[in-house]
Amino acid sequence: MEANIEEIKEIIENEYRGNQTWFAEDIGINPSYLNEIINKRKSAKSNKLCLAIIKWCEIKKKNYKS
Question: Residues 52-55: contacts with CB within 8 Å, 24+ apart?
Answer without folding.
Answer: 52/27, 52/28, 53/3, 53/8, 53/27, 55/27
